[in-house]
Design a protein that fits this description.
423 residues, 9-stranded mixed β-sheet, alpha/beta, single chain, binds pyridoxal-5'-phosphate
């Protein structure tokens, strides 16, 4: 994204000028990049294969404006709470195109989803299934559901998997699905069992886990047909398509993930002759991560007794907890000093009262001083949506960039905003 300029440009916008205009910390999100990603999903998945759909996993980054963009791109929306459903409805998103997830949905949220007309609810467990059946019958409804199935892919052989292994808080085992959940659901008047869902984990850079999982799911669907004559109308393969955060300029392609999965599903249905169910994917991070950056201002710069150089910035853990939570690593650009030699190994430190509040460890940067700006790349996913007010720090504003123009889409949280609910 670096253009022929002395300061850092992001999607045709001068980052130093935007920092001056909006203040820091500041989230910048490129609408152009989001739309490019959606176009790739269309080209390589939804247009390429019929009877498919992509639902944006909005927990990665959900603002009203983001939902409007996703709506205009024609994607469905994956939501995980009553609050996400509420915001999506406010943004004008059709609930019929929503997919509602969660391992511990409350009765209140299930009621909200049923009343809003959420198209697909992904059922995680038997008690939820029973509750949903009851609540749907109370409303004279038959709710379309998928079962979240944990394919039991061994996490030791595939280290990146974090949700698909047998010992997971999510979903039904394949055995429980076959022996109990499906026969129960087929008896329920409030439930229309449409198909199955799996999500093997997040930030997967290889497609092996998706492939292993879909093979297990196909086998399970064959068992279900043999046992009950039931055939799925939808297979939802979840999200988890990873992006490169630092040290690798290559971009992961959606086709690397979906092509081998589609091949296996199509082969299985060609073999048995049944119509292939709709296939859904739920990309979150892949759409939004690289579309976003965070801009900070440098405060103190110091060398500690161990010889480590610290550049303290005006944000950190409250706007980006991922370094502390997941040991994430990020690329950092010195906004005004791009052209200077990057000679100083620097740890970019957040401002919170926690030693673990580090934005990026050991990045090579030019010598920094108070007032310089730093841009942290690929912070679009799971930053704003995971942000907090820890240390009573207000959330940064979200400025969207399109065709080289900037527009404010979420205001900076003020001190007063943070006291709004206090008596
Ligand atoms: C989080 C989540 C996703 C999106 O994951 P990404 O890694 O952001 O693509 C999709 N589906 C489900 C069920 C999820 O929980």
């Amino acid at each position: 994204m670096i253009m022929n300029s002395d300061t850092f440009m992001f999607h045709g916008c001068d980052v130093a000028a935007l920092a001056a205009k909006y203040g820091t910390p500041l989230y910048l999100v490129s609408e152009d990049e989001i739309r490019k990603r959606c176009a790739e999903i269309k080209r390589d998945f939804t247009d390429k294969y019929d009877n498919t759909r992509a639902a944006y996993a909005s927990k990665a980054f959900q603002t009203l404006e983001m939902i409007r963009i996703i709506k205009s791109e024609g994607l469905s929306l994956d939501v995980v709470s009553g609050g996400e459903i509420y915001a999506a409805v406010k943004a004008g998103f059709d609930p019929a195109d929503m997919v509602f997830h969660g391992n511990s949905k409350t009765a209140g949220e299930i009621g909200e989803a049923l009343d809003a007309g959420v198209g697909t609810i992904v059922v995680d467990n038997l008690s939820e299934l029973e509750l949903m059946d009851q609540m749907a019958r109370d409303r004279n409804m038959k709710q379309e559901v998928l079962f979240r199935v944990t394919p039991g892919v061994d996490s030791h052989t595939h280290q990146y998997i974090s949700t698909g292994q047998a010992d997971s808080k999510f979903g039904f085992s394949t055995e429980e699905t076959v022996e109990t959940a499906v026969p129960e659901a087929l008896k329920m008047e409030g439930i229309d069992l449409k198909g199955v869902h799996f999500h093997v984990g997040s930030q997967l850079l290889e497609n092996t886990s998706h492939i292993m999982a879909v093979e297990i799911i196909i086998k399970m669907l064959e068992d279900l047909k043999d046992k009950y004559g039931w055939t799925a109308r939808e297979i939802n393969c979840g999200g988890g398509f990873g992006v490169h955060y630092a040290g690798d300029p290559s971009r992961t392609k959606i086709s690397d993930f979906v092509d081998p999965v589609m091949k296996r599903i199509e082969e299985a249905y060609n073999r048995c002759g049944d119509p292939r169910p709709m296939v859904t994917i739920e990309p979150g991070r892949w759409i939004i991560a690289e579309a976003g950056i965070t801009v900070y201002e440098v405060g103190s710069v110091k060398t500690n007794a161990a010889g480590r150089v610290y550049a303290g910035v005006d944000g950190g853990f409250p706007d980006n907890p991922r370094t502390e939570l997941y040991n994430a690593s990020y690329e950092v650009e010195a906004v005004e000093k791009l052209k200077l030699p990057h000679t100083v190994k620097t740890t970019v430190a957040g401002k919170c009262c926690e030693s673990g509040d580090i934005v990026a460890y050991d990045v090579m940067l030019p010598p920094l001083e108070r007032g310089d700006h730093l841009a942290v790349l690929a912070t679009g996913a799971y930053n704003y949506s995971m942000s907090s007010n820890y240390n009573r720090i207000g959330r940064p504003p979200v400025v969207m960039l399109k065709d080289g123009k900037d527009r404010l889409t979420v205001k900076r949280e003020t001190y007063e905003d943070m006291l709004r609910n206090e008596m």
